[in-house]
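Our preliminary data section would be incomplete without showing what the modeling component actually yields. Below, a chain of 102 amino acids is followed by its predicted structure, encoded as tokens that our downstream tools consume directly.
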Amino acid sequence: MKRVEIKVLECTVNTRLAPEYGQPNIEPCPFHKAGDVFISVEGAKPEGLCESAWQAIEDYVFALGHGAPGFWLEWSIQNHAAVLCCNDGLRPVTFLVRALDD
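Predicted structure:
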């Protein structure tokens, strides 16, 4: 099984929905910041990665770790990689998840 890199691309606030559904002065996710990198080994959740984010991307990490070729190429130009986000609709964290060449 390949190692899989999980890199935080951005942490944002949904400026369209936050005013209506979020607390006043809502800020981006406090758990991650752009540039954070995690490595999944043997399909395990990396230490320090938010549990909610892991639940959202775990299936992709598993597939990439097992060598799945770009079955998401309809929306991505990278083979063996995917741009995904966590389940927080008000403060989404966007990740680049890619298999590493070991």
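The helical segments are 18-21, 51-65. Residues 51-65 form the longest helix (15 residues). Preliminary results of this kind motivate Aim 1 of the renewal.
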